[in-house]
Every structure is written in structure tokens, then in C-alpha cells.
Amino acid sequence: MQKEGFCYSFNPKKCEVCKGKCCTGESGYIWITPAEMITLANHLGINVDEFRLKYLDKFGTKFSIKEKIFKDGFACIFFNEMDLNCSVYDYRPKQCRTFPFWDYFKENYEELEEECIGVKRL
Ligand code: SF4
Ligand code: SF4
């Protein structure tokens, strides 16, 4: 898989071997939009207020999905520790859907290469 403007390709099949490195490790922000909150809250069968309280942290005007302790670091609260994958995969936010094709990695490919075994420089 390739995307215009990026100097690397991505093979999603590698995710089966990797088992969620991009959902675990160092702490980070997992931004979620109001529309995505509604989608995910509906999927979980709770209202948005309850969803925010239980699963999100607020930073200024933005919301990020909470993390939990996992191994020597952290994992997204929706990371399934048994199956080592995303428990809300079909409802995950855009930030997760667009990984590893983030503008940030256009200038920081080496950083991405260390994290994601699915990428390959073109
Ligand atoms: S780090 Fe890369 S290979 Fe691993 S699960 Fe995430 S996208 Fe897939
Ligand atoms: S929502 Fe799913 S894909 Fe996104 S960081 Fe959490 S576990 Fe990973």
C-alpha cells in the first residue's frame, strides 16, 4: 500500500506478526473527534457523556483516549491484551485508521521505521 507524497509503502499483513506495537509502548495522544466519540459510544451502547468520562482524557479543547499500564509501558484502553489487537477496530478514530501515513512521518521516517515493521522505504 502506498500513498502519494510519502516515501514509503506499508504492508498491513505485517500487523499479524507485530501484534499492536502502534497501540502500545510509550505514552501518547490518541485524538478522537466529537463525531468519532458518538460512533464509538453507540457501538459500546453507552451515551457520549458516559463514554467521555470512562474512556477519554481532556487536553484543552481536545480529547484523547485513555491509556492503561501494559508490560513496561502503556497501551490504549481499547487494546485487547489477550488477542493483542484493537477491540474496537471497525470504530477506531481516524488517527488510528491513517497510521502509518501521518504527515509527521514524512520528515521523520527513521522514527516510524523503528516502530512499525510494516513500512518500507521506496
Ligand atoms: S506498528 Fe505497524 S505493523 Fe505493527 S500493528 Fe501498527 S501498523 Fe501494524
Ligand atoms: S483505538 Fe484501537 S487502533 Fe486506536 S490506539 Fe486504541 S487499540 Fe489501537
Brief sketch in words of this structure:
This is Zinc/iron-chelating domain-containing protein. Pfam families: CxxCxxCC (PF03692). The chain is α+β, with helices and mostly antiparallel strands and 122 residues long.
Give a verbal description of the structure.
The protein has one domain. Helix 2 packs across helix 3. The longest helix is centred in the N-terminal third of the chain and has 11 residues. The protein has 6 helices and 10 strands. With 122 residues, it is α+β, with helices and mostly antiparallel strands. 32% of the residues lie in helices and 25% in strands. It has a 3-stranded antiparallel beta sheet with strand order 2-7-6, with no helix packed on it. The model has no long low-confidence stretch (mean pLDDT 97). The structure holds iron/sulfur cluster (2 copies). The site of one iron/sulfur cluster has 10 residues, from loops. This is Zinc/iron-chelating domain-containing protein.
Kindly, what is the distance between the CA atoms of the first and last residues, rounded to a whole number of angstroms? 11 Å
List each distinct ligand once. iron/sulfur cluster
SSE sequence, one letter per element: EHEEHHEEEEEEHHHE
Determine the mean pLDDT: 97
How much helical structure, as a percent, in the residues?
A: 25-40%
- Count the E strands: 10
Can you count the helices? 6
Largest sheet descriptor: 3 strands, antiparallel
Tell me the fraction of residues in β-strands, as a range: 15-25%
Shape: globular
Q: Specify the oligomeric state.
A: single chain
- Based on CA atoms alone, the radius of gyration comes out at 15 Å
Number of domains: 1
Strand order of the largest sheet: 2-7-6
What structural class results from the helix and strand content?
alpha+beta
User: pLDDT under 50 segments (min length 5)?
Assistant: none
